[in-house]
Amino acid sequence: MKLENVIGLEIHVQLKTASKMFCACSNDGSPRQSLRRSAGENQAPNTTICPVCLGHPGTLPTPNKQAIEWSAKTALALNCSIPHHSKFDRKHYFYPDLPKAYQISQYDEPIGTKGHLGEVRIHRLHLEEDAAKLLHKNGESFVDYNRGGTPLMEIVTEADIKTPEQAGEFLRELRLIMRYLGVSDADMEKGHLRCDANISLRPVMASRNRPLTPSLVKEGALIGGSGEILYPKTEIKNLNSFKAVERALSYEIIRQTKVWKETGEAPEEQGTRGWDENEGKTFVQRVKEEANDYRYFPEPDIPELDFDKNWVTKLKAELPELPNQLRGRFQEQYGFNAVDAKLISQDRALASFIEETISELLGWLESSGQEGSAEEIWEKNKAKLSKLVSGWVLSKLLGALSKTGKELADITPENMAELITLVYSNKTNATNAVIILEEVLNTKTNPTEIMNTKDLGQMSDDGAVEAAVDKVIADSPKQVAEFRAGKEAVLQYLVGQVMKSTRGKADAASVGQILKNKLS
Asked: What would the 3-class secondary structure string for 94-112 be?
């Protein structure tokens, strides 16, 4: 029996608004948003709370306008439709981390519906309040209500995902979108983004739309919204990293495949399993609740929401350039390849730095005496220039930053462009340019000045280069004989000796060619 995976995700994204969802309590756990693991966690337990977020009798929840706007903007970024009408509901369940014994959420009228991110369809996006946090220590349990009431977006996908790797890639792209929008840091390890993964397996033939047969009814098959045949799903919880999502789904595929092979049928009931990171396996938690188990009804204390069409249009116009748009533009406008464009899109600050570097580089090219405008020079040499920029920024610069302990702010786009110009115009070679780059980071001096002061410019006297080559040939009879006998790898040794004798000022490629000519 050939089986296929049917995977859907339920993602919670914690919004970094100043206050909580339905009260004025602080939603910021520390002065630096990026350092907080989740709302209130860097403050003493149960200090960022009030009667409203604790659900005391007689209190009145007031919706956070910014949270609603951010949720609608996120829905638009995920290509969702924004309805004219939405409302909040009470979702009843009794857990110690839920002070009111119900959660203010949304049920049948969410903020966004029917979107997509890549090939994965988005079923819905709704807004709710987060629960408190349970703490377990030395056999005792405590509840910290600081997190209770934090604005939380829930994004539910359709069961379009086929592999654990695709699930991980979807979540990484979603995190990137949240950061581009500025609505959340979306760090899974810090609790800003949490994911439950739903998975079932089915025979490949069951993926086709067809009527239920008696045998399928016996197997317990269900009909999904698209008419496809589905089987009872397992929901995996406690996933706090992208790798955990991928590993848990991979484990469940193996476990459920074994059930199918042993019984010829799917697991009998829909259930919830936890993920044990240390053991690398899932474990049973409980039988999954259905929607009617939560006894939803409209929240009586919050007026219904009516979204004006002009307001939605305004929000859409305010959307920033999103990661996929940036990748496409960098490939088309600047000539970057797909791999480099994807790397660049992972960090919006890095993308801005590269774009500013290119702008400065155009100015250097225009003043270099080459024929045509800067744009014409770039267009004519786009493949070479884009490769030069990506190589020097993504490889050399990031490597130098790591080596020197510096940050991107320690070098200006103007200095980076000047350095690339020196390499492009053969005024210095790659080896010496790295030395210049590290000196720029340490001293903030401009590259040309460093090159001249430290005598790191390219050797332009062809006669001097040839003389250096002749001397190395004369001093290396053994290696010369080996090269002439067919051992071509020796050439790199000879090139290295010439570079050493010229203190790295000769052009390695030219040296190699001169050596080949002379030794032939």
From this structure: CCCCCCCCEEEECCCCCCE
Selection from 292, 52, 13 nearest residue 156 by Cα: 13
- Write down the pTM of the prediction: 0.84
What residues contact 390, with CB distance under 8 A and at least 6 apart? 336, 337, 340, 344, 354
Q: How confident is the model at residue 221 (pLDDT cuts 50, 70, 90)?
A: low
Q: Residue 2 and residue 204: Cα distance in Å, rounded? A: 6
User: Distance from CA of residue 459 to its chain's centroid?
Assistant: 44
Extract the runs of DSSP E, i.e. beta strands, from 404-515. none
Residue 279 is given by DSSP the state T
Helices 508-519/490-501 angle, 10° precision: 120
Quick one: tokens of 117? 């991110």
In the block, tokens 């070479």 appear at: 384
Starting from the edge strand earliest in sequence, which strands make up the sheet with 234-239, in order?
112-117, 120-129, 151-157, 3-14, 193-203, 234-239, 271-276, 281-287
Q: At what angle do helices 477-484 and 508-519 cross, to 10 degrees?
A: 70
Q: Are 356 and 420 in contact (CB under 8 A)?
A: no
Task: Name the band, by pLDDT with cuts 50, 70 and 90, for residue 227.
Answer: low
The per-residue pLDDT for 211 is 46
